[in-house]
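User: Sequence in, structure out. Go.
Assistant: Echoing your sequence, followed by the structure tokens.
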Amino acid sequence: MKRERPRRARAARAAPERAHDRALRARREAGYAAAHRPHAHHYTILAVAAAKAGDELRVAATGAGPHAVRLRAVEQSGDPGDALKDASPSDDALASAWYRTKILPRLVQQALDFLADGEKI
């Protein structure tokens, strides 16, 4: 019969902190809002993201045109109603252009509110 050697307890070693870990813990200054369709596939009709870097505000939307678009008018004025100056909503299988036109300013307002509240996304 083979005799087992007693195992030595290893000293717990803390893993070195990486820049990625620090970035995850840092408070993000960003906001996000989306309109989803209650459907089995959960497609997003519209989504708006807002971020603040220093004094600079960045706002972008997807689903408000043929591709994602920065809402520069909102970035300059801070007014959600200006979102339609940069977006060109169109009809598709998920929603009409009329619906997107009505919802986009509300989503921009929600994203800006999340940004102002400092909530994590």
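User: And one key feature?
Assistant: The helical segments are 19-25, 72-77, 83-86, 97-117.
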